[in-house]
Design a protein that fits this description.
The protein is of the alpha/beta class and 320 residues long. It is built from 10 helices and 12 strands. The strands form 2 sheets. Strands 3, 4, 5, 6, 7, 8, 9, 10, 11 and 12 form a 10-stranded mixed beta sheet that branches. Strands 1-2 form a two-stranded antiparallel sheet. A hairpin with a 2-residue loop joins strand 1 and strand 2. The radius of gyration is 27 Å and the shape is elongated. The termini are far apart.
């Protein structure tokens, strides 16, 4: 039957992969460990392959094994075959991406950048965008495996297989309740916040890392007693008067409500960089390519002064 033929094909491919790994390591136990299968199952697969071919592929040399003359010839062909199969998978993946009008985006928000989503809506039609949170340590893997197409993050992600572009530098400030004594201040010294309770994004996020880095450089750690993945929850928590939070100015100006105030932070480097990342292989579908260009053009226009004041102003009068 067709299903039986397919099952048999998959078994044969596994045999080839097993054979290649044993040939590479010349050790059955080590190969089994790397393949995450039992040594008995690996030995059985190799014996089955040898029976089908009618030759011995390996010879025992002391405690190790080595390719026989037949195995050496067969290995070169197996390697070529597996490369061709992988290339075929990549071609199919590329074709699927060309026909796919959806994008998976790792980002804290798109709506925190005034006008950005309106630009996307005007320039893109019939699209589906999935925006989700991801811890910094997980981003590289998700981009490289196709679980995400693009990522907007606070801070650069160092990975040789990823491409990255700094989009902009923003000012980090303090969000306080309108009833807090701090609300009447134009600025607050970072040292004054040491005993305050913080509401913050989840540990591992780019925003959380920047807050901790800023405080750690001053010799103390922020007392985070409320963690969330949503900016709206942070605003509601700060509005109660119990918490303070650090936020990028433009997000406050775009999302802020009458119950909270934005106050500048003095005595610390409050600059944070926003970066765009994607897989260096450039396996992006047309919509992802278009979004990447929209993001780059949006921030380039702002930095060149065309969108002056668009995202708010920093403490020193420069636009961020």
């Amino acid at each position: 039957s067709t299903s039986e033929a397919l099952r048999r094909c998959l078994v044969d491919i596994n045999q080839l992969l097993y054979f290649q790994k044993v040939a590479e390591l010349q050790h059955m136990t080590k190969a089994a460990e790397e393949l995450n299968i039992s040594q008995a199952a690996l030995s059985q697969a190799i014996r089955s392959l040898e029976r089908e071919l009618g030759v011995q592929l390996f010879e025992r040399v002391g405690r190790n094994i080595a390719l026989s003359a037949y195995g050496q010839v067969y290995l070169s062909q197996v390697s070529n075959a597996l490369v061709s199969l992988k290339r075929g998978e990549n071609y199919i993946l590329d074709l699927k991406k060309k026909n796919d009008n959806s994008v998976k985006l790792i980002a804290p928000t798109l709506f925190g950048f005034p006008g950005l989503f309106s630009i996307i809506s005007r320039q893109c039609t019939g699209f589906k965008i999935s925006i989700f949170y991801c811890a910094l340590r997980e981003i590289a893997a998700k981009l490289k495996t196709g679980q995400a197409d693009l990522c907007i993050s606070q801070g650069r992600i160092e990975d040789k297989e990823l491409s990255g572009l700094r989009l902009h530098t923003f000012e980090l400030g303090l969000l306080v309740s309108k009833n807090s004594p701090l609300a009447a201040c134009e600025s607050v010294q970072l040292s004054e916040l040491k005993d305050h309770e913080f509401a913050s994004f989840l540990a591992g996020s780019g925003h959380r890392r920047n807050v901790e880095l800023m405080c750690n450089q001053a010799g103390w750690s922020p007392k985070v007693t409320l963690e969330t993945n949503h900016y709206a929850d942070i605003v509601r928590a700060v509005a109660t008067g119990r918490y303070v939070a650090t936020v990028v100015r433009n997000i406050y100006e775009n999302y802020g409500n009458g119950d909270v105030r934005f106050v500048r932070i003095e005595g610390a480097d409050t600059r944070v960089e926003v970066w765009l990342h994607w897989d260096s292989s450039e396996r992006l579908n047309p919509l992802a390519h278009k979004l990447k260009k929209i993001f780059i053009d949006y921030f380039e226009a702002f930095e060149s002064g065309e969108n002056k004041g668009y995202l708010g102003s920093s403490a020193n009068g420069e636009n961020h």
